[in-house]
Amino acid sequence: MFLYKEARKLAKSGEKPLDIARSLGIKVLFAPFRKIKGLAMSLGNKRIIAINNGLSEAEQQFVCGHELGHFLLHPSTNFVFVLHNTFSYSKQEYQANRFSCELILGEKAEDYKCMITEMAASGKLDQLSRFVSEISSMNEEIP
Amino acid sequence: MRNEKFAKRLKEEREKKGWTQEHMAKLLNIKIGTLSGYERNYRTPDLEMTSKIANLLGVSVDYLLGLNDNEAAPWWEKDTPPTDIELDKFIREQPNLRIFGDPLDEEVKDDIMLALRAAWEALKKERAASKQPKGK
Questions:
Q1: pTM to 2 decimals?
Q2: Do B17 and A41 touch (CB under 8 A)?
Q3: Which ipTM did the prediction report?
């Protein structure tokens, strides 16, 4: 699908989602949320992603990629937020999860297609972020 | 009722978003000719479509219609901090701010308020920085 390709293209820069978001002109903020993991909003022509500052680095990157996915995949929704238990409640959430996986893994995503599809659908933030950060830090030479 | 200002602002705001007429017409579920008519001030949308357009563009209906120019700026573009009432209203107007169609629970709502205030602050800082004369 076109937009997942877009994610891989963005991934080629070697940058992580937080930097990719910033380079696309999106403001990234951190806040001590109690329940929300991350949130994407369009205010006029400004696009902002807010991320829970209590999350691990890997989780923050994943959430950022997820919110970025919403901006690019669902441009008409101007306000979305993520709670742990609503991470996969709709097709849009699934797509955003998958986008984030592709964004973090880049070309490697091809080798893990089935796993990504399954994980994105089950949509647990801790599992997803661990999964992608482990694979992305693995060496190229997989037997 | 024709409205020159509405036509102009609609086009301006659409272009700010980087949308083509075709793209925006699709989002609004109307024909491209209809949208183009709005922008050329050949025709005007009904109330329902007007508020749909304002929502999509993230501006107030007042602003789109060119009423109350002083108050045209939405809360995130003002230098005075948004009030709870303003933010509350904003939240209620967002179609996606529901969990499975249920109203937000208090903790989630507090989080969203926090995010909106942080956003306001960041945007204010950005405006201040862009106003600084260059080279200083």
A1: 0.70
A2: no
A3: 0.85
